[in-house]
Backbone:
């Protein structure tokens, strides 16, 4: 089975001499839900820009379901739907026309175009706004409009660049379940995001890109297994003036009833709770200090920065 | 893409362009109607009645073909330059660039959009002119062919301008400093036979002269220039500008980084 997306030795040097990509290669298998992560300026949007043919690669190859983006451009593009980071529709056009027109650009007949426009606008909760000019929509609606537009030709690969940036929590959750639904129905999805919680709960595989290079390309599960330790915040009683001392655990107080404990991979929480109980400290509740993937991500990017500066 | 898909894509762009200029009719269709009516009243009726004959016709009859052509030129050009530049500015040009549509369809689509506005305004101005003069058409096929070619030529020019423009100022520089002077000096208001020999020669370097003269020939049956030479020159410019515009689009200057 051909990969949904195959990128080989992709480089990009912009006109001002900035090297955005230094020869990256990775594959996204069919049916995958794939996250492309990286700090700002790492090269994520450049990569997606090249795949969606809005940015010209300096070198390297890109193929979509086995169709080379240069030599077999039409078929490659038919399989690809793109939701960019910035709003890129005509703000004066109405919602219906924007989606309907996009169908025309893919050569869809009027009948199919109308049916699908109605279907996707309803699916994304925009049908009652169909006659509204796009500039009058809220931020979340504008983003959903771009998703409807990207889906109109029913691509097998959907690429979303920061789809939930600036979207409220409720809408973000509903967007997640929508993306999971179309992924379950067979659409391969690639997304970039700043919310690592999003990548952790949605995606199966991940590539982490930093300073134009892939620093990690693996499954989310495998990535999280590499985590050496996790930090937990325990809500404790009674209030304490200073952190207790327990052998083998690093801990400090965030405030008098919030104890931050670092638990290593070979340690376990039952043991920690037993030791706390022995000191008459009760744990009322507990949460992760940061998202697990976030800890991993930060340590990886920091290591990469250190090795680059050496 | 199959031929049918290409046709649908082309139709989609043209339809969108027509909807755009009809939606904002107060900015696109009304101003030329008002301006041209003023030209007819002031130059044609008030001043024209004192000018007497020009090229063997009364002044109103003489300027009507020139003014129709001027409207076709400015509207074909203006439609494409403002529409394509605003697509660049709002980045919705990306809607077309991510699609499998070939570049030549995008270019032809915008040109046909510009031609549509040029023709709508041209017809509107022609109808208005009937309130001021009787219009006898000497050669209908010449009128149709030269109008279409001129419209295509300036729509393509507008596209090149939009590709090169980096700001809204750049959109108005060419119309203000190049197009308007060339149009005014292109025989819209006078016959170049009035000019001294030297300036007649200079005027012949102005491509707009050929279009206005040929159109005037189609209406009145008289021309400053040989009609076949005119067609040759206009077709040369259409082919050259189309090739330049397509090359720029393929290179993606200003739209693909």
Residues:
């Amino acid at each position: 089975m051909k990969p949904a997306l195959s990128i080989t030795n992709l480089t990009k040097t912009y006109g001002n001499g900035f090297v955005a990509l230094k020869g990256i290669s990775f594959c996204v298998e069919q049916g995958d839900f794939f996250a492309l992560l990286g700090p700002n300026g790492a090269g994520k949007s450049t990569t997606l820009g090249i795949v969606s043919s809005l940015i010209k690669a300096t070198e390297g190859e890109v193929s979509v379901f086995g169709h080379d983006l240069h030599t077999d451009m039409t078929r490659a593009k038919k399989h690809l739907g793109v939701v960019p980071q910035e709003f890129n529709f005509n703000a004066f056009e109405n919602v219906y026309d924007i989606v309907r027109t996009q169908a025309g650009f893919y050569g869809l007949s009027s009948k199919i175009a109308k049916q699908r426009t109605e279907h996707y606008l309803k699916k994304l909760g925009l049908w009652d706004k169909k006659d509204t000019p796009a500039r009058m929509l809220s931020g979340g609606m504008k983003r959903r409009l771009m998703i409807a537009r990207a889906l109109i030709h029913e691509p097998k690969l959907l690429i979303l660049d920061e789809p939930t940036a600036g979207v409220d929590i409720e809408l973000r959750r509903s967007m997640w379940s929508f993306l999971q639904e179309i992924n379950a129905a067979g659409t391969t999805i690639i997304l970039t995001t700043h919310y690592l919680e999003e990548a952790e709960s949605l995606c199966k595989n991940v590539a982490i890109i930093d300073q134009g290079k892939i620093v990690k390309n693996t499954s989310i599960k495998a990535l999280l297994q590499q985590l050496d330790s996790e930090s937990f915040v325990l809500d404790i009683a009674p209030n304490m003036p200073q952190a207790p001392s327990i052998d083998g655990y690093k801990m400090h107080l965030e405030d008098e009833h919030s104890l931050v404990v670092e638990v290593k991979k070979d340690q376990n929480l039952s043991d920690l709770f037993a030791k706390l109980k022995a000191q008459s400290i009760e744990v009322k509740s507990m949460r992760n200090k940061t998202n697990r993937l976030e800890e991993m991500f930060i340590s990886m990017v920091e290591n990469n920065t250190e090795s680059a500066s050496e | 893409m199959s031929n049918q898909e290409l046709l649908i894509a082309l139709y989609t762009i043209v339809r969108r362009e027509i909807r755009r200029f009809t939606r904002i009719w107060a900015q696109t269709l009304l101003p030329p109607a008002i301006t041209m009516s003023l030209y007819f009243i002031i130059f044609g009726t008030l001043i024209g009645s004192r000018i007497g004959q020009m090229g063997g016709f009364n002044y109103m009859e003489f300027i009507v073909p020139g003014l129709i052509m001027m409207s076709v030129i400015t509207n074909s050009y203006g439609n494409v330059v403002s529409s394509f530049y605003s697509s660049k500015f709002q980045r919705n040009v990306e809607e077309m660039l991510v699609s499998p549509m070939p570049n030549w369809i995008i270019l032809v689509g915008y040109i046909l959009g510009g031609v549509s506005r040029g023709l709508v305004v041209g017809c509107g101005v022609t109808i208005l002119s009937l309130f001021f003069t009787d219009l006898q058409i000497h050669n209908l096929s010449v009128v149709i062919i030269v109008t279409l070619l001129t419209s295509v030529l300036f729509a393509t020019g507008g596209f090149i301008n939009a590709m090169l423009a980096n700001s809204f100022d750049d959109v108005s520089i060419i119309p203000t400093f190049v197009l308007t002077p060339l149009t005014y000096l292109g025989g819209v208001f006078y016959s170049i036979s009035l000019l001294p020999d030297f300036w007649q020669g200079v005027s012949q370097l102005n491509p707009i002269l050929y279009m206005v003269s040929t159109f005037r020939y189609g209406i009145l049956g008289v021309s400053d220039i040989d009609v076949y030479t005119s067609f040759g020159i206009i077709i040369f410019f259409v082919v050259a500008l189309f090739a330049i515009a397509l090359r720029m689009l393929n290179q993606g200057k200003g739209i693909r980084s």
In short: The first strand of chain A starts at residue 5 and ends at 13.
